[in-house]
Amino acid sequence: MRAMVYRGPYRVRVEEKDRPRIEHPNDAIVRVTLAAICGSDLHLYHGLMPDTRVGMTFGHEFIGVVEEVGGSVQSVKPGDRVMVPFNISCGSCFYCARGMLANCHNVNPNATAVGGIYGYSHTTGGYDGGQAEYVRVPFADVGPTLIPDWMHDEDAVLLTDATATGYFGAQLGDIREGDVVVVFGAGPVGLVAAQSAWLMGAGRVIVVDHLDYRLEKARTFAHAETVDFTEHDDVVVHLKRITDHLGADVAIDAVGAEADGNLRQHVAAAKLKLQGGSAVALNWAIDSVRKGATISVMGAYGPIPNSVKFGDAMNKGLTLRMNQCPVKRQWPRLFEHVRNGHLTPRDLVTHRIPLEHIAEGYHIFSSKLDECIKPLVVPNAA
Quick one: 193 and 217 in the same domain? Predict the structure, then answer.
């Protein structure tokens, strides 16, 4: 089969790989019909995540058709159209039983923290991902879900991570009626978080970024106020000024490891790999909220230390909430929001890239070219 293959930082290409096979009675083999490139994939592409091995196939957002199932699989069958959450979960361990599907203890040898994730380095289990023609789906009775007949394929693929994660980010903010919510980052997750904040009762939503086309998308897609941090000597002072000098009630970090805005931290994290990510956005969140506020962290960071202002968070009495999104737990509510038009995931899609051109797709997305917000990958484009 054809698959995207990692060959080192900034180097990916399409190669022939062995088609995956059933390795366990609980497995399914899914023929991928649509996948996506995620901002988190760029952290791998840039070499920021440890133990990203040459030869790995990325891609944790995908949908497809079941081709084959193991002997014990009962919930899906060959021919079913399915959407697959990015979390790999057993469904029965201590954490899965408590709804913490992103922290499954049985699917990752490194499961003291995160569980298993498709296509996201060996720190999350070493599973090949969906930027390929076929993918092996473990625990097929737990993860894959039939795509409803009414759902558009592009909505379905974005519900496997970006939309669910953005919604979860707003949910973790514990937003109350009338709250001022600041979202750092106008990528897909930040845009969905901003859109979702209104559903949860926000009285005001502000999105911070520095790219004009992403800020415009925040205004049109999420109906948010916007702040270009490059236009202010100190964006924290500006945010305090426009929030009655108290600060926001809720902040959502939807940026993570490669935040701009502080040259020293960006170089130390993104270039020299001395940190698990540039914590600029998270520190801005800590500084710009009021005392007693809540901060939700959705941006991905590596497992090595970061320069986070934890003392300030403690002294301000902040609540910090974070985790990888337990995708399938969000789906019942999200399906209704999408069906009713309250959330519109496919409006984020800007590019549809044939699998053969995935190297160019990564370059466009990584370099913020052609006003790219969310690129999809089409394995069998005509």
Answer: yes
